[in-house]
């Protein structure tokens, strides 16, 4: 019997018993796996097998009858991490048992809770989730609405920052569990009065659209559970065992949710590494792992110290550097693979020379048999990796940039998703605005405003039904616009009726995209009839992206089964991010920023730009907060510990035409040579 049968289930002839689950584990891993009731903190350094430890702990709880599958909730930060956890559990326990364990992202768990209690916040269970790009469009609309006096007065008094900056500030405030009414009193942001007025208006608009912002999912779930003890008690009874991955990356809202679900003496297992806390700019709070013991006084702490990834030379350099940080859990990493690694440093006059030399190192590694998928090029910023991207291209070495625009971030795919969002939630005015203009149908913004007003005034907010009845809209003067609206609405209404009759998610996605005059028809025309070669090629590229979207919808439906829905698919898409792709899944070299590469590993790692003012950044060097420099040191530590066998660290005197700050202090702190300079 194969591990993966034709139906996609992981079934094995024999399941390991409780003792069998301990075979092959280190003594520290065994301690973590066998821990009984009460809070447990697993401090897991890089490459120490944290996912294996987590999955074996969950399996051990089930094997000893301490828990049933439905009583275990495992929360992660990425769709990929949740999927990997589910696959490993299926390998250990079989698909049927593994499916009973809920392994999901924080936001997915909160979305599930809010769908059960959406009416508390004036939504239905078909609500839409708005991401950053959606919210920026909402902000642009609100800023341009001169009828909103509070916003306009704030703009006159405080200026108008870019929508992206305003959205980011509101997201940070939500992650700290602030509310619009209390934000201004505690904020140091220069345009705080504008943010406060804008946030209030956004809340009202999202309620009318039957939508939540992505960051609302956490904040409103915490608010719900704090305000309704009976609902909290119900969830605590449902999930008696809680497992939290990457505890060091949790923010205030996430830590509050964990504490609510677990209670101060609950069965919560948190795993993480304070030395890998590098997301404070996203409002992550390293203190959530450092102060775990204060929040859970009866906790047990286990430190995983055997690194199975890197050679001794690499571990020594990383550990020597990170020991300079004062606020951390002490840990002694031991390289299970022993000695035999290489750590090389080189300095150059200019970044173009740095890129050329690094490219030659990569070419030599490829010639020696290192797979391209086992080579990772890192930089503190995308700016630092730009020269080597050009050098690799000139050398004919295939590479890809981790975190470049993903499928679900491309404009045309977002257009298609707007059609689906409107089908799932016909009150979504911003999905309507996007869909009706993709492609353009001669329906302008003023007309769209009339349609939205009519929907909210006469059609219970249903924009599809309103469009079907466009002939009745007296404020829409253009006959052509009324005809375009009616055609659009009638087509979507027919697809909606198919959906109500039980047609599959895969079928509905295809039907929505292939509507008369819709996105597929528009790009087919570009591909087949344009006189310009570049436009014909771009039309085919977009069509392939739309095919990928349809395949993704079908894959989602196949995975979820009868419970699949358009709402569920949109929620699934909302959790997918480009940075979750790992180097080993591609036969090209990977170029990435350090932040995006967390969780990856490679035989050869090249870290560019080891210079003062870049790594550490000039902001950290100028900051009065010592935690900023400690985070930069953690960033260096994360980069170094991606390497299995060979680590190359480079620097230069001139980058981008400007003098650098000289060799990074982290090189000396790691005990590495900062004098070595390649010949000019």
TrEMBL record:
Any single Gene Ontology cellular-component annotation: DNA helicase complex
All copies of domain UvrD-like helicase ATP-binding, residue ranges: 23-311
Gene3D superfamilies: 1.10.10.160, P-loop containing nucleotide triphosphate hydrolases (3.40.50.300), PCRA, domain 4 (1.10.486.10)
Membrane-spanning parts: none
PROSITE patterns for the chain: UVRD_HELICASE_ATP_BIND, UVRD_HELICASE_CTER
Ligand binding (ATP): 44-51
EC numbers for this chain: 5.6.2.4
Domain named UvrD-like helicase C-terminal: residues: 312-599
InterPro entries: DExx_box_DNA_helicase_dom_sf (IPR013986), DNA_helicase_UvrD-like_C (IPR014017), DNA_helicase_UvrD/REP (IPR000212), P-loop_NTPase (IPR027417), UvrD-like_ATP-bd (IPR014016)
Region Disordered, residue ranges: 1-20
Catalytic activity: ATP + H2O = ADP + phosphate + H(+); Couples ATP hydrolysis with the unwinding of duplex DNA by translocating in the 3'-5' direction
Superkingdom of this protein's organism: Bacteria
SUPFAM superfamilies reported for this sequence: P-loop containing nucleoside triphosphate hydrolases
Coiled coil, from the record: none
Protein's GO biological process: recombinational repair
Keywords for this protein: ATP-binding, Helicase, Hydrolase, Isomerase, Nucleotide-binding
UniProt-recorded Gene Ontology molecular function terms: 3'-5' DNA helicase activity; ATP binding; ATP hydrolysis activity; DNA binding
EC class name: isomerase
Pfam families: UvrD-helicase (PF00580), UvrD_C (PF13361)
Family to which the UniProt record says this protein belongs: Belongs to the helicase family. UvrD subfamily.
This protein's name: DNA 3'-5' helicase
């Amino acid at each position: 019997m194969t591990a993966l049968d034709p139906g996609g289930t992981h079934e094995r002839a024999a399941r390991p018993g409780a003792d069998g689950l301990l075979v092959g584990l280190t003594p520290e891993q065994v301690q973590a796996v066998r821990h009984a009731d009460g809070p447990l903190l697993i401090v897991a350094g890089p490459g120490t097998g944290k996912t294996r430890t987590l999955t074996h702990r969950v399996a051990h709880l089930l094997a000893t009858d301490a828990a049933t599958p439905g009583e275990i909730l495992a929360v992660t930060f990425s769709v990929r991490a949740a999927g990997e956890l589910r696959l490993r559990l299926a390998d250990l326990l079989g698909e049927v048992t593994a499916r009973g364990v809920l392994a999901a992202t924080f936001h997915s768990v909160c979305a599930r809770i809010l769908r059960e209690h959406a009416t508390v916040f004036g939504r239905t269970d078909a609500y839409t989730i708005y991401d950053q790009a959606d919210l920026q469009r909402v902000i642009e609309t609100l800023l341009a609405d001169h009828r909103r006096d509070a916003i306009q007065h704030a703009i006159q008094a405080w200026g108008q920052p870019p929508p992206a900056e305003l959205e980011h500030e509101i997201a940070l405030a939500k992650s700290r569990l602030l509310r619009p009414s209390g934000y201004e009193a505690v904020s140091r942001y220069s345009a705080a009065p504008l943010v406060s007025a804008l946030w209030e208006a956004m809340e009202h608009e999202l309620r009318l659209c039957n939508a939540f912002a992505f960051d609302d999912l956490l904040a409103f779930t915490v608010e719900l559970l704090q305000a309704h003890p009976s609902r909290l008690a119900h969830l605590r009874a449902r999930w008696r065992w809680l497992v939290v991955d990457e505890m060091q990356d949790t923010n205030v809202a996430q830590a509050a949710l964990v504490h609510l679900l677990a209670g101060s003496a609950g069965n919560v297992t948190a795993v993480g590494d304070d030395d890998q806390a590098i997301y404070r700019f996203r409002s992550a709070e390293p203190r959530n792992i450092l102060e775990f013991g204060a929040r859970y006084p009866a906790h047990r702490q286990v430190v995983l110290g055997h690194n199975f990834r890197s050679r001794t030379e690499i571990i020594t350099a990383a550990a020597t550097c990170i020991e300079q940080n004062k606020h951390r859990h002490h840990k002694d990493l031991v390289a299970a693979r022993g000695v035999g690694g290489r750590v090389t440093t080189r300095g150059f006059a200019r970044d173009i020379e740095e890129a050329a030399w690094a490219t030659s190192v990569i070419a030599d590694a490829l010639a020696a048999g290192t797979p391209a998928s086992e080579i990772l090029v890192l930089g503190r910023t995308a700016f630092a990796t730009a020269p080597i991207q050009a050098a690799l291209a000139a050398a004919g070495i295939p590479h890809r940039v981790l975190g470049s625009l993903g499928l679900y971030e491309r404009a045309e795919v977002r257009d298609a998703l707007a059609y689906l969002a409107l089908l799932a939630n016909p009150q979504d005015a911003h999905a309507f605005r996007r869909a009706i203009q993709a492609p353009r149908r001669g329906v302008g913004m003023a007309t769209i405003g009339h349609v939205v007003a009519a929907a909210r005034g006469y059609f219970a907010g249903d924009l599809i039904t309103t469009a079907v009845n466009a002939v009745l809209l007296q404020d829409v003067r253009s006959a052509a616009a009324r005809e375009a609206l009616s055609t659009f609405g009638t087509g979507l209404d027919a697809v909606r009726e198919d959906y109500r009759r039980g047609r599959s998610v895969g079928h509905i996605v295809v039907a929505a995209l292939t509507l008369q005059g819709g996105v597929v028809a528009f790009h087919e025309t570009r591909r087949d009839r344009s006189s310009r070669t570049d436009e014909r090629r771009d039309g085919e590229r977009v069509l392939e992206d739309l095919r990928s979207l349809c395949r993704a919808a079908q894959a989602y439906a196949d995975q979820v089964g009868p419970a699949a829905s358009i709402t569920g698919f949109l929620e699934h898409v909302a959790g997918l991010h480009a940075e979750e792709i790992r180097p080993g899944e591609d036969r090209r070299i990977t170029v990435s920023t350090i932040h995006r590469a967390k969780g990856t590993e490679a035989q050869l790692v090249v870290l560019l730009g080891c210079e003062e003012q870049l790594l550490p950044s000039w902001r950290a060097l100028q900051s009065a907060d010592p935690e900023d420099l400690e985070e930069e040191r953690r960033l260096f530590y994360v980069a170094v510990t991606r390497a299995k066998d060979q680590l190359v660290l480079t620097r230069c005197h001139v980058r981008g035409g400007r003098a650098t700050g000289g060799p990074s202090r982290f090189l000396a702190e790691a005990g590495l040579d900062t004098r070595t300079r390649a010949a000019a």
